[in-house]
């Protein structure tokens, strides 16, 4: 199982071995935003989901803290998301961080769950305790850049909150140390090329000016033989 390490604002470090990794999908609070995301994916040939919101189990080894993502072809891209990471039994052991779900868009047309397992979920190295930002969660900002171009920008108020997903984890007996849940994403800026050679995601707290950021390059693998 992969081990994730996070630095908290007070300098403490938290570690957890990931045994359950989950990707939420179509998780906007606004039906207009969900419809916009469905339309974005439809342009890539992805059929509409049968249930909203969706939740996709992902192989735990795909939880990653990396600055490079190797890919097999040019039609892959990320998504700006937040992640909750359960590191212990107490409320203060739930961490909030930035994440980017790097997805194989060509495979996505054949199955969203398959595509989620074809690329890593990249998480930032810094995190906040969820309890420390709970009272202003909706005001936290989420932004992403594909290459140097801003492709996503919004607030956590646009997505279902962590409390919703924590209830789902409890209902499904998945609330345990080592569980990581990625939030689903906000709409992309129309017309921006998402197939870039790098991705960057930022989770911001306007009340304090603090940010959590991740960034990685996208590296094309050599052509296969055979």
UniProtKB/TrEMBL annotation:
One of its GO terms (molecular function) is catalytic activity. This is DUF2848 domain-containing protein. Pfam families: DUF2848. SUPFAM superfamilies: FAH. It comes from the Bacteria.
